Amino acid sequence: MHDVAVIGAGPAGMMAAICASSRSLQTILIEKNRQPGRKLLLTGKGRCNLTNFCTVEEMLAQVITNPKFLTNCFYRFSSRDTFIFFTELGIDLKVERGNRVFPVSDKAREIVDSLHRQIRESGIEIRKGKVKSIRRIYPDFTLTLENNSTMQVKNIILATGGKSYSATGSDGSGYHLAGELGHNIITPKPSLVPLRSDNPWLQKLADLKLKNIAITIKTKDNKKIYSDFGELAFLTNGLAGPIILTASSFFRSVTGLELSIDLKPALNNSRLKLRLQRDISQHPRKKIGNLLQVWLPRKLIPVILHISHIPADSVSASLTGFQRVCIVNALKEFKFHLTGFGSFQEALITSGGIDVQEIEPYTMESLIVPGLYFAGEILDVDALTGGYNLQIAWSTGHAAGVSCCC
Ligand SMILES: Cc1cc2nc3c(=O)[nH]c(=O)nc-3n(C[C@H](O)[C@H](O)[C@H](O)COP(=O)(O)OP(=O)(O)OC[C@H]3O[C@@H](n4cnc5c(N)ncnc54)[C@H](O)[C@@H]3O)c2cc1C
Predict the structure, then answer these.
(1) pLDDT digits (tens, 9 = 90+) for 280-289
(2) Between the CA of residue 19 and those of 26, 27, 47, 329, what are the distances in Å?
């Protein structure tokens, strides 16, 4: 009988298995895919931003859900430990903008292969199969795989990931397994995901990317609840890009909220109006559509003019004061009614998952079912982009792997 069965060979499961076996525990790693680490291969656009080289406090500041729960395991296995761990596996690492850590090769494959090699060299058995049920028959567990084969193990580490990018294997089946053992699941929701909007202009703007813009999100009663600055992209059915993905992490629901884009955040309304007036007086005969070409990407010009109720072929000098104000307002508050989140298929991570109130934060052991441990995205923890989510996988995987005992 194995001492430990780790279910799921993503980053959290692989780290947990390596740590458990380093303590001479007979370890088996069960993975439904033929190869481990399919999602890991996609990370960082195939380059794998495996951690962020920052202090534990800085790391915790980037965790959106349940940072306090992660404090212990981040101290036990920090981003510095991740750096050393992979360096010892023979990977050369580099630190890029924003302290993001990547392999020098820029290949996620190198990270996956190094973990796989370490697993083989540690004598960890890898079994291909999907676990469909776990039963607690004291003092052991009985696992049943999809082909109805069963096995008995002393401890289980559940590291089956969330629900996003399900083609990589994380189809949410781990929630069901944990739920059957009595665990409470905080409803999973797509996170680091585009936001949907029914704004009709999106059809015309799709694929356009904007830099150096500001966004504000307001409630129905016009209360400002969120703002950010950076890059975004238009989709046919919503908004994407870095500042939108980040915004998606801060809300359990966005339906009914209004997002407005400030296309000229460096200038306030009165300075923008003065700038427009100056340009008009320098080029009075130019059509307003042509005049705005120095201000805006081509695709946006007819949209801004339409919102301002101004024909694109109007001669600039003919614009009334009111029309100029309308242009300024459209540039400062380009509004999008939000209708929801993108799908799990588009989401980089899942927020929600196993309720951490039922887990011991030092060991990752269940407070309900002794001998059951959790690691990685299956937990109700999530962070922003920058290598923090993989650090959660390494740190929680490490905590579970070094803690499970027989
Ligand atoms: C496109 C993309 C890019 C990303 N880039 C980054 C990045 O650069 N940096 C970063 O920090 N984070 C990134 N992330 C997030 C990061 O990949 C995840 O947070 C991380 O993979 C979670 O690790 P995990 O081991 O918990 O789960 P997963 O990686 O999802 O692994 C879970 C494993 O469990 C297996 N499994 C599931 N159910 C069962 C079952 N019932 N039986 C057997 N096996 C099962 C699955 O097949 C899978 O292999 C990215 C995510 C995506 C989708």
Answers:
(1) 999 999 999 9
(2) 11, 10, 25, 58
Going by their DSSP bridges, the two strands 125-128 and 27-31 should be labelled as parallel
CB-based contact 48:95 (threshold 8 Å): no
Q: How confident is the model at residue 357 (pLDDT cuts 50, 70, 90)?
A: very high
Distance 39 CA to ligand 1 centre (A): 5
Query: pLDDT band at residue 322, thresholds of 50, 70 and 90?
Result: very high
Average pLDDT over residues 359-370: 97
Structure tokens at 64: 């959106």
C-alpha 84/C-alpha 104 separation (Å) is 14
Helix (H) or strand (E) holding 374: strand 372-374
Domains of the chain: 2-190+350-403 (3.50.50.60), 194-342 (no CATH)
Q: Which helix (H) or strand (E) holds 133?
A: strand 131-137
**Which residue's alpha carbon is nearest to atom 14 within ligand 1?**
43
Atom of ligand 1 nearest to the CA of 164: 53
Question: pLDDT tens across 97-146, in order?
Answer: 999 999 999 999 999 999 999 999 999 999 999 999 999 988 899 999 99
* C-alpha closest to that of 159 among 38, 60, 29: 29
Distance between CA atoms of 196 and 337, rounded to whole angstroms?
9
Residue for token pair 């004061």: 321
pLDDT of residue 390: 98
Residue 41 CA to ligand 1 center (angstroms) comes to: 9
Taking CA atoms only, the protein residue closest to ligand 1 atom 30 is: 161
Q: Considering only CA atoms, which of 3, 6, 2 is closest in space to residue 364? A: 6
Q: Which residues on neighbouring strands pair with residue 51, listed in sequence order? A: 101
Contact (Cβ atoms closer than 8 angstroms) between residue 292 and residue 305 = yes
Ligand 1 atom closest to the CA of 37, numbered from 1: 49
